[in-house]
Amino acid sequence: MARPLSEAKREAILAAACKLVAEHGTGAPTAKIAREAGLAEGTLFTYFATKDELLNQLYLDLKTDFAKLTVPSYPRDGSVRDRFEHFWNGFIDWGAKHPAKRKALRQLAVSGRITQETRDKSAIAFAEISAMFEQGHRDGVLKDQPQSFIGAVLDAIGTMTLDLIAQEPDRHEHYRKTGFSVFWDGISA
């Protein structure tokens, strides 16, 4: 009978992968990931059959981690602006608190190694955010731009905001508010 897999080892592999993908991109070698996790490379493949499986699971875990911060307290009955600001604040606070996770997620998001199935699974956690985009367009609150474009603008301004926060952590709140103001002025009708 096969020995049950250790959740602690699985988590160590994912943590090591996160750190190394943040530092080196998706080309980070599995041998280095295993070594960082304190395991033999063969052990890594006991938990994840392929490197792509590992990267896809890491992507899902990072998206889920971010969703846990923003979705439960999401103001469903708030204005589109209030809901966007809530999402923005969660994005900035999560990114500032977990810079390696944020960098790894950015690397994974642009990687061709993340499957559409994985992207679709991760989108489920953000269904209300997608609905907010749609309502904003229907109600004329947002400029007539595709959701993908608005998402890219959010990511670009958010990254700039996070870079400034990293340089001046004591101005976190200032940069978070200023960044949202610039973002909102850019997307609102």
Mean pLDDT: 93
Query: Outline, from the CA principal axes?
Result: elongated
**Number of β-strand runs:** 0
The CATH architecture comes to Orthogonal Bundle
Structural class, from helix and strand content?
mainly alpha
In angstroms, what is the radius of gyration?
Answer: 18 Å
CATH topology: Tetracycline Repressor, domain 2
Work out the helicity level: over 70%
Question: What is the top-level CATH class?
Answer: Mainly Alpha
| Total of helices | 10
Unreliable segments of 5+ consecutive residues? none
- Biggest beta sheet attributes: none
Total domain modules: 1
What fraction of the residues are assigned to beta strands by DSSP? Answer: under 5%
How far apart the termini lie comes to 63 Å
Fourth-level CATH superfamily: Tetracycline Repressor, domain 2
Q: In sequence order, what are the helices and strands, one letter per element?
A: HHHHHHHHHH
How would you sum up this structure, described in words?
This protein has one domain (51-187): Orthogonal Bundle (Tetracycline Repressor, domain 2), CATH 1.10.357. Helices cover 74% and strands 0% of the residues. It is built from ten helices and no strands. It has helices at residues 7-24, 30-37, 41-47, 51-70, 80-97, 99-109, 116-124, 127-138, 147-167, 172-187. The chain starts with 6 loop residues before the first helix and ends with a helix.
Task: Please render the helix and strand layout as text.
Layout: H1 7-24, H2 30-37, H3 41-47, H4 51-70, H5 80-97, H6 99-109, H7 116-124, H8 127-138, H9 147-167, H10 172-187
Helix pairs in contact: 1-2, 1-6, 2-3, 4-6, 4-7, 5-6, 5-8, 5-9, 5-10, 9-10
